[in-house]
Amino acid sequence: MKKQLRQQILARRNDLAATVREAKSEIIVKKVLELPAWQQAGIIMSYVSFGSEVATPPLIKAALAGRKRVAVPLCVREERRLIASEVLAFPVDLEPGTWGILEPKPESLRPLAPEMIDLVIVPGVAFDRGGNRLGYGAGYYDRFLAFLRPGARTIALAFAEQIVPDVYPEPHDRPVDMVITDAEIIEP
């Protein structure tokens, strides 16, 4: 069920023209920058967009320009976990890593404890109105989010085409506090 949904929504997202994804990403980024949760956060972690995902470079650059501390994930495949690593220069501190996604270079690795992070921008394939997310299937984010301190916010970015009635969450799946799309803000 999840595998089929993942394939279906990825195909739907990949079918969006690059210009459409770009325009939708701009709308989503603008919404994020206006959020009190964003404005109040001192330390932010954001995924670095890849392929047809909602583009995060403008968010990362805005955070750095706004003197926020910014972390991006480093995938530790052998342990199936993420390390939040602080970025001082974007994208200079990064190089293609796991799955070709930009990650911190070894000499730029600056681990941040998850408990320090105020806001996490979370990727995903599909989302429902309960804030449940269907990720890429490896569970990296579900495990990482479990270590955030109480009160830290989690926000997913998605195109309207990624919202579905049900992502079939399991007990270990961690919902997000908010899903921001080009069409709406979903707050479960």
Automatic annotation (TrEMBL):
InterPro entries: FTHF_cligase, FTHF_cligase-like_sf, NagB/RpiA_transferase-like. SUPFAM superfamilies: NagB/RpiA/CoA transferase-like. Its cofactor is Mg(2+). Gene3D superfamilies: NagB/RpiA/CoA transferase-like. One of its GO terms (biological process) is tetrahydrofolate interconversion. It catalyses: (6S)-5-formyl-5,6,7,8-tetrahydrofolate + ATP = (6R)-5,10-methenyltetrahydrofolate + ADP + phosphate. Keywords: ATP-binding, Ligase, Magnesium, Metal-binding, Nucleotide-binding. The keyword Hydrolase does not apply. ATP binds at residues 2-6, 133-141. Substrate binds at residues 48, 53. Its EC number is 6.3.3.2. One of its GO terms (molecular function) is metal ion binding. The keyword Metal-binding applies. Belongs to the 5-formyltetrahydrofolate cyclo-ligase family. This is 5-formyltetrahydrofolate cyclo-ligase. It comes from Neomoorella stamsii.
